[in-house]
Structures are given as structure tokens and as C-alpha cells.
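Can't paste images in this forum, so I'm doing it all in text. The chain is below; anyone willing to post the predicted C-alpha cells underneath?
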Amino acid sequence: MSHGYAPGGPAVTPPPVPLEKIVGDVVDNVSAAAKAELALLEARGELALHGATWTAAWGTIAACALGVAMLALAFGAILALAPHVGPLLATLIVVATLLLIAAFAGWRARSSYGDIRTALRRDLAGEGIDD
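Text version of the structure:
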């Protein structure tokens, strides 16, 4: 049965750690954490730039393909309508239809832009002056 005594006498307590060492260790840990956070931010920025670059490139290709498709659709619609209503009226019908589509798309883009502005406002409650 043990009474809490060590065979060679009481256990030796280690000397206290100096305050300067503790503070130095804390500063080193905070410094390392700050450097790691900055490296993470830099890596995230590079990843975002990479993503934005390729998004813009593929978006440009998609926009060009859509433009060519819209031209083909417009020419095809004019050619299909021309025998029935004449070339001038067919052109006017197609142009008016495309302008209506463009107006609708512009209206939807404006409302989506409003959502972005709302999300990025500093004062979400609308109580102060908006930036």
C-alpha cells in the first residue's frame, strides 16, 4: 500500500519557467499563426484570381458562341418569314422580338445587380447613408 511517498524521498519539483520564456513562446506562436494566416490569404487570392481568369475566358467564349447563334437565329427567322410577310416586315419583326428579349434580359440583370448591391451594403438595416 502506497502512502504517496517516493522511495527516494519526496519528488523533486521542476524549477519554474521564467516569464520571459513564456512570453517569448507566446509571441513566437502568434507570429507563426499570423504568417500562416497571411499565407492562407495569399493562396486564396491566387486561387480566386485563377478562377476569375478562367471564368472570364470561358464566359467570353460562351458569349461569342451565343452571339453567333443569335445571329443565325435572326437570319433564319428573317428567311423563314420573308416569303410570308416580305423581307422588310420580316426584318422588323425579328428586330422587334430581339429588342424585347434584350429589354427583358436587361431588366433581369438590373434586378440581379440590385441584389448584389443589397448584399454588399455596409448598413443592411438601411438606417444610415449607403456607400
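DSSP finds two helices and no strands in the chain. The chain has a mean pLDDT of 84.
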